[in-house]
Amino acid sequence: MKPSAIVIGAGIVGLATARALAVRGYKVTVIERNQRAVGASIRNFGMVWPIGQPGGEMYERAMLSKRIWKEIGNEAKIWYDEVGSLHVAYQPDEWMVLQELCEIYKERKYRLLNAAETKLQSPSVVTDGLKGSLFSADEMIVDPRVAIGSIADWLTDKFDVQFVFGKTVTEISYPSVSCNKEVWEADEMYICSGADFETLYPEIYSATPITKCKLQMMRAVAQPDFHRIGAAICGPLSLLHYNSFKAAASLEALVRRCKAEYAQYIEWGIHVMVSQNQTGELTIGDSHEYGLNPDPFDRQFINQLILDYLKTFVRFKNETITQTWNGVYAKLTNGESFFHHEPEQGVTIINGLGGAGMTLSFGLCEQLISKKLAAGSSR
After folding, report:
1. Coil, strand, or helix at residue 181?
2. For residue 100, which of 247, 236, 235, 239 has the smallest C-alpha distance?
3. 4-45+145-208+336-378 — its CATH code?
4. Interval 311-353: pLDDT, tens
5. pTM recorded for the entire structure
6. How far apart are CA 370 and CA 372, in angstroms?
């Protein structure tokens, strides 16, 4: 008989867990409280973003995730675009950081581009005052609003994974989970509930250094004449955001200047980047507000700050904003990249990937499940 597993949550971490189990022969049931995934997993840029990860284990995990994304995309006919990423620089300290990163991560084969080369890579980049850019070929874009649902369909079709939508698991009493009067049983259970960490095992989360992050984002209209922007484009403030960039010694001086010149941006955790989906629409963001009870209301001045900064490094043929929204994800406050815990035998929590869920989930869950099964077989 097949081993069985229940996965709670149909966001990217839940899907990645379901996949890692299904490919190993498990009979998997995914239970999702909403009628479809509607949380942070569909409210992001769709960036699979290895450049943001430091060298070693984290970068390799991101690249493993990318390989799995491509495998699924090719088999399930899910759109993806390996456009890479472009970080632009207009000030000497920004350019210095990019040059240093190119040397530090030379095994990743980044390329330093001058202004003319940058314009060829992305015709949308503002070249007035442009020192140059750092191009990485590793990054790719998916459309999360389409991909998350399509991955669930693929798991159902290929591995007979059962998805139960619109049911909230309110109690776990291994080997059973309960949704009001309905009960499911399985050999193993995985809790991948993202920002909802109050419903199950709240006492564990209250003792864990974890919080919530709210971000604000926008979408611009599909560009006319099928215009493509090329690589995903990041403004200089993005250099302050990713852990991998902390390896540059020159970053400290850039941080000091930005804190003085962009105090409001720093206060609201704003760094600005843009990606493009298969229809030509642009996803623009974002901000970062932390706390266990994020304000549900968007702040228009934050969106305006994002748009104002965006125009300093890119311009588009049509800049009409058609949608604004916010997303909330769980993030550890101790610097760790994820939360993995077994509160009781047969039950595993996977959470706290922060803003790197699209980048790391497939690789992380592949590694965790592989390691767990290997440890079980060795006993």
Report:
1. coil
2. 247
3. 3.50.50.60
4. 999 999 999 999 999 999 999 999 999 999 999 999 999 999 9
5. 0.96
6. 6
